[in-house]
Write a structure and sequence with these properties.
There is one protein chain. The protein contains nine helices and no strands. The protein is an all-alpha fold. The protein has one domain. α3 runs parallel beside α8 and α5 crosses α7. The N and C termini lie far apart (about 35 Å).
Length: about 200
């Protein structure tokens, strides 16, 4: 994991950094384990004047990745879900959508709970024919809020934030990954509980 993180951060000074950021954000919404925040922070530290543009690129890639998952589920339908996920998890997601609708996606998009955990939710949203517009809106608002908060911190408090992140970047990265793992631990009992209820 540390090797992947270094590889991702290494793209920050590449001529193709913007494209790499978009692709990483898109992939993280579907299958890649490293959140795009790491590359976004590294790039914004190098180019603080473009922090909001970078946040926009990151948001666009992430939302489009979620939409891609939605349409995969819509085209593949329930047979695709049952080939990838267990029946218990599928029933849990169906129950969660019936109870919370797209709020599940909105919460996942903003919090440290990894968005890729909700690949199941994005695929299921299409397979269960959840209305597309609310789904896309929830993804766009939550993901944009998260990335633009990062950009705003670096843009307005650039020097103190830059010095802090440069000095303790490894620790911040470690803390972020701990939060991601914590997100998994939070979701896991919920999955089991809703699965048993379903």
């Amino acid at each position: 994991m540390s090797g992947l993180i270094e590889w991702v951060a290494g793209w920050a000074q590449s001529p193709s950094a913007n494209i790499a950021l978009f692709i990483l954000a898109f992939a993280e919404s579907s299958f890649f384990p490293i959140p795009p925040d790491i590359l976004l922070i590294a790039m914004a530290l190098i180019r603080p004047e473009e922090a909001f543009i970078l946040a926009l690129i990151c948001s666009a890639g992430s939302v489009l990745g979620g939409i891609f998952g939605y349409f995969l589920g819509w085209v593949g339908g329930k047979p695709l879900l049952y080939r990838i996920f267990s029946e218990e998890k599928i029933l849990m997601v169906k129950n969660a959508y019936e109870k919370y609708e797209v709020w599940a996606i909105a919460v996942a998009g903003f919090t440290p709970i990894p968005y890729k955990v909700f690949t199941l939710f994005t695929l299921s949203a299409g397979a269960f024919e959840i209305p597309f517009k609310p789904f896309a809106a929830a993804s766009a608002v939550s993901r944009s809020a998260r990335f633009f908060l990062v950009a705003m911190a670096i843009y307005f408090w650039g020097e103190p934030v830059r010095v802090l992140l440069e000095k303790y970047f490894n620790w911040f990265t470690l803390a972020f990954m701990v939060l991601l793992v914590g997100g998994f631990l939070v979701i896991r009992p919920l999955v089991r509980r809703h699965g048993h209820k379903a």
